[in-house]
Amino acid sequence: MSGEIKNRLKNLRSRERRKKFLKELACIAFGTAMGIATYVVCLYTHFAIFGWNFGLILAPLFAGYVESFAAKRLVHESTGAVSTFILFIITVIYGFIIANPTLGFNVITAGSIVIILQAAFPTAVNYFLIAMGLGIVSHVSGIFKKITMFLTDTYEKIFKKESKTKDHYIERHAHTRHDFYDMELEMNGLGVLLLSLEYPPEGLGIKEQKGIYEARYIFFSDQKEEIKLGLEEVLKEYLLMDVRLAKDKALLKLIKQLKADGCNGLLNLDIIYDTVGPKKGENINQIIIKGTGIVFEENDEL
Amino acid sequence: MLLSSTSTLDNKTIIKYHGLVHGESLIGANIYKDLFSGVRDVVEGRTTAYKEELENARNDAIGAMESKAEKYGANGIIGLKISYNNLGGTMGNTILVNVYGTAVTFKD
Fold first, then answer.
1. Does residue B83 belong to the interface with chain A, where contact is any CB pair within 8 Å?
2. What topology is assigned to A186-296 in CATH?
3. What is the count of residue pairs from A and B with beta carbons less than 8 Å apart?
4. Using the beta-carbon criterion (under 8 Å), do A243 and B20 form an inter-chain contact?
5. CATH superfamily ID and name for B2-107
6. Half-sphere exposure at residue A99, Cβ-oriented, CA atoms within 13 angstroms
7. DSSP annotation string for B75-87
8. What is the residue-averaged pLDDT of chain B?
């Protein structure tokens, strides 16, 4: 018996709620309709000064006023002047886009849209702008990363824990080199005599010139990442290691090419460095090593 | 250690060609130093600072190359080439000094 009463009361409450919700919707719709009517009247009568129509202000205001008035009578509480926002959007869409088909998208219109949105939804937009602003500052300067690093380092110093981020980074770099220099590499002991000389040495006994040989290696120097990690002090050292690694890789590639073609020497060896990517801090560099492959008579004296 | 940019050595006999020796050095890979050098530019101090740094870098690179040549038992480097390359960097002035040549053993 009591369960039936409860169900009836529940139904009654939900019915009341639905009724109230419909009344609220009606108030918003009425306010919106009155706002639109005001805007139409303003546009029709050219109620404007210096081309700026008063309807842009009067329509949202009147819509909100009518909606609030009706809500007070029907539901005895405010509905939040939702029709004001609706009218705001309607007037902006009509005034800026439909009535101005020639209006292009540029800095001024983009700025206007931001200001309009800021006026309509101040809290949300302000939060967004702050978050975006802070995000840009953080990305460019890496300040939050530095602060976090400082706090982490301080915490680690106090509680005697070892830093992980820097270690991981250093480990990664070390691995890159270790993979290449796994064995003892002696470039001059690989069976190809590398000479930076323009003219062949006397007594070398060149049997054949095999033509020009060239090898390149592209390497990146992402200094921004190192700066963000607070590794400025080792940045120079790392970059130099990258340069040496690139040079050795290119040299090895060249030696392989020469040996494959039966050369045992390279004359007029030239090393060229170039920056391919123009973006500051994240450069793409290339090293080119070239020269003329030769076959000469093996001579113990030389 | 005798250094020469020529392919031969006059009045000397080269008895052994050891092969390629090279050395590298960098300057300017420091954002804070670069920023301060920008400030120093106002009082015309940057030119001197860079000149000194470039000379130091060049000497470091040559020193590294010479020690490699010494390991081969060479007493001279011929066909020596020195190049200065801009590798970009955060402020666009990371300069690589690259030196290389052919290590040789000669007698008078």
1. yes
2. Translation Initiation Factor IF3 (3.30.110)
3. 111
4. no
5. Hypothetical protein apc22750. Chain B (3.30.110.70)
6. 13
7. SEEEEEEEEEEE-
8. 80
